[in-house]
Every structure is written in structure tokens, then in C-alpha cells.
Amino acid sequence: MTLKSKKVEQVSPGKLKFTGDLTIRGTTKEVVLDVDGPTAPVKDTWGNQRAAVNAATKINRQDFGVKWNATLDNGGVVVGGDVKITIDAEMTKQVAK
To answer: What pTM value is reported for the model?
Structure first.
């Protein structure tokens, strides 16, 4: 799975919309992720600045060719169609040496 950035827009303070191309099993589709952050930078023990973001979206796995499933005894299915994708990322800006 790969995600390639196309556009980032600020929706409000601390809220962004990230648009990119998501590729799973050779199928590429445009997705929009709701982003919280970045957080205010904090200084770590080594003097580097750190900040974090959280991004999330929901896709239908079958749109990307992930179709395997099995029926349960009660008539339900093992795997649902909708999958939530969450990305938690931390960024570090190193101090100049």
C-alpha cells in the first residue's frame, strides 16, 4: 500500500484535508484524509523539535481488488467492506550542528 500526496488544505486551525492517491494491490484511487494537527512543537531531550499529526479516512476494500470473504454460520461475513485507515505520524526537526 502506498499513499502519494497531491494537495493539503487547511480547513480550520489544527484541521487539514489531505488529498492523495492511494494504491493497494496495483489499483490507485484518490482519497481524502481528515488530519488533526500538527501539534505544537515540543523540544526533546536532544534539543530537536517534534510535532505530530493524526489522519484518517474510510475506504471500501473491494474498490481496490481486496475481495476475499467467507460467510459465517449466522449469515454474516468474516470481513466487512469498509476499512478505516488511520495514520499517526511524528515529525522531527533536528537542531543545526
So the answer is: 0.80
